[in-house]
Amino acid sequence: DTGVSQDPRHKITKRGQNVTFRCDPISEHNRLYWYRQTLGQGPEFLTYFQNEAQLEKSRLLSDRFSAERPKGSFSTLEIQRTEQGDSAMYLCASSTAVPHEQYFGPGTRLTVT
Amino acid sequence: EDQVTQSPEALRLQEGESSSLNCSYTVSGLRGLFWYRQDPGKGPEFLFTLYSAGEEKEKERLKATLTKKESFLHITAPKPEDSATYLCAVQEGGSYIPTFGRGTSLIVHP
User: Fold this and answer.
1) Span A56-82, pLDDT tens digits
2) Confidence of residue A1 (pLDDT cuts 50, 70, 90)
3) Mutate: best of A100, A108, A109, partner B, most B CBs <10 A
4) Of B67, B101, B97, which Cα lies nearest the Cα of B86?
5) Would you call B41 and A109 a contact, using CB atoms and an 8 Å cutoff?
């Protein structure tokens, strides 16, 4: 078991550019979550997949954010027209249905200049 | 009102000085309460899941307990390598989305 992996680990981009992050969950996990975390805060929920279906999105999630999990395996998170306020750590986690604990990847640190 | 409140925000201990971290929650119908450890620049690492009041879990120097309104993470004789941020998350009945607290930053001095 190699755990949850994320790529890239760091991304620096200029304001207005689009960025895409990838998450590979633990292979037998059917649930996949994306979170955003800023300094001094806990992870903030963005969106959640069960297999390939996106079941829930945060009401705080801007239309500039989109996520996919096309074959129920890896997932991508795209941010269009990045803003400085998007600078954060983007975390991916996966879990089985029961038990519900989530296993997190190392995160992607995004810096928007 | 925050659903999950962790206290203290920061805690400094001397090596060997036992203490407890608190996580209070206001959700109704708890599905599960989770404790994670997070090192700087890394993703959270799962520690424990607690499901019902009275439940306890232990791992090395850590022991997590749960009541109807709060959970405690007890750290016995901590070592410098226990220094990290400890996050609590609660999952409400009917939801698969946990809500995280802001964490407690623990520093253990040698």
Assistant:
1) 999 878 899 999 999 889 999 999 999
2) low
3) A100
4) B101
5) yes
